[in-house]
Design brief:
Number of helices: 3
Number of domains: 1
CATH class: Alpha Beta
Amino acid sequence: MEVVRRILSEFGETLQPVSDLTSPDFIWNTGSWTSWTGPSEYRGIDGFMQFFGEWIAAYDDWKQDVEEIVDAGDNRVVAITCQRGRLHDSPDSWVDLEAGFVYTIDDGLLVRGDVYGSRDEALKAVGLADG
């Protein structure tokens, strides 16, 4: 869990992946997120940054707060976040989004991130919620 805590903390400060804790073969899976209309998978840090650039392109300001981190066993960690962005040219238009992520760690490195549209979906994916 500490690897994920550090990655999320540093990412929150820099908006850059933590390369020393991320596998070169890292997979960012958006196929589990039904609202995403882009590619279902991004590979490596460059692929993640492509996704992230597309994700925040609509906003002048964007931030993410980590609300919960859960040890899901089998080298998996669930993180629940609240993301908030201010739309371009709309200083009073803020968008809030809850998201769930399932991170997989192998040998101390982040090897996979699966994106979900809610806390419940992420917890269900790892067998920690009914449904």
